[in-house]
Amino acid sequence: MTVFFVPFALLILFMFNSLTHSLCLKTEMATEKQPKVFRTINILITILLISSYVEVLYT
């Protein structure tokens, strides 16, 4: 199961990072604020992916 989930999780993180980058460009966000936005979104997506992995693992 891990063999399939890890590439899927990396793909999801890459997609969300590219969407976040587009959001920062479109809204003309300040350069100082961008790392905080990226960090917050990456942490939240990682928590979501870990919880979904645990749910799939134990069901």
Would you write up a description of this structure?
- Helices cover 83% and strands 0% of the residues.
- The protein is elongated, with a radius of gyration of 14 Å.
- The chain is mostly helical and 59 residues long.
- The protein has helices at residues 2-26, 34-57.
- Helix 1 (2-26) packs antiparallel against helix 2.
- It has one domain.
- It is built from two helices and no strands.
- The chain crosses the membrane at residues 38-58.
- Keywords: Membrane, Transmembrane, Transmembrane helix.
Distance between the termini: 12 Å
- The poorly predicted ranges are none
Query: What number of structural domains do the residues give?
Result: 1
> Helical percent range?
over 70%
Radius of gyration: 14 Å
How many distinct helices?
2
Please provide the count of β strands: 0
> In what range is the share of β-strand residues?
under 5%
What form results from the Cα inertia axes?
elongated
The structure class reads mainly alpha
Order of helices and strands: HH
Instruction: Give the rounded overall mean pLDDT.
Output: 94
Largest sheet: none
Write the layout of secondary structure elements.
Elements (H helix, E strand, L loop, with lengths): L1 H25 L7 H24 L2
Helix pairs in contact: 1-2
Keywords: Membrane, Transmembrane, Transmembrane helix
